[in-house]
Amino acid sequence: MAMLIVLGGLPGTGKTAMARELVARLPSAYLRIDTIEAALMNMSALGDVGPAGYVLAYELAKSNLALGMTVVADCVNPLSVTREAWRAVAAGASSGLLEIEVVCSDPVEHRRRVESREADIPGLTLPTWEAVLRHEYEAWTTGRLVIDSALVSASEAAALILESSAHVAGSNGAVLAHASPHRPS
């Protein structure tokens, strides 16, 4: 069964590290909104691409899901409308869906990550810590897997995601209820 795995969360929480670890273990198409938006800005000289990066990602996800592929989407996914759009993509493709919210419960560590990151995409301007704090980000109101990157490594997160995706596939594509993994004491 095709599976759509969407990692969302504020910049600097660890989504990309987790997504890269996941796609190294799971044959899948990898859609990173930062890459799509940077390409759009570079080719069109637009200062703000608005929702275009997400709209392109939805279409790319649809086409890959239709081929029976697993798709891993790496995006902030800050609004209920973007989350609903990903759900519609999965439903339209009759694929499983695993929504993941990546958080970093340690604000000092989160700030350190944001301030020490280096852009790995040509033309991408990384947000400042102040921009991350001001970023529009609606609270989730639906079931999802919550992974706290202050508590688990990218490798551990990938293992949790693989385990959760197997559970979703076994339940005919239903979204997982809220879960928050913690390291054993």
Question: Which characteristics define this entry?
Answer:
single chain, 185 residues, alpha/beta, Rossmann fold, 5-stranded parallel sheet, 5 strands, 14% strand, disordered C terminus
Total individual domains: 1
The rough form would be described as: globular
Strand order of the largest sheet: 2-3-1-4-5
Total strands: the figure is 5
Q: Might you state the CATH topology name? A: Rossmann fold
Roughly how many Å apart are the termini? 36 Å
Output the CATH homologous superfamily: P-loop containing nucleotide triphosphate hydrolases
- Work out the radius of gyration: 16 Å
**Number of separate helices:** 7
Low-pLDDT regions: 173-185
In percent, how helical is the residue content? Answer: 40-55%
Q: Please describe the biggest sheet, giving its number of strands, its sense, and whether it closes into a barrel.
A: 5 strands, parallel
The average pLDDT score comes to 89
What string gives the helices and strands in order?
EHEHHEHEHHEH
CATH class: Alpha Beta
User: What percent strand?
Assistant: 5-15%
**Pairing-aware structural class of the strands and helices?**
alpha/beta
What would you say the CATH architecture is? 3-Layer(aba) Sandwich
Describe what this molecule looks like in 3D:
- This protein is α/β, with parallel strands linked by helices.
- The chain has one domain (3-170): Rossmann fold.
- Helices cover 45% and strands 14% of the residues.
- Strands 2-3-1-4-5 form a 5-stranded parallel beta sheet, sandwiched between helices.
- The radius of gyration is 16 Å and the shape is globular.
- Residues 173-185 have low confidence and may be disordered.
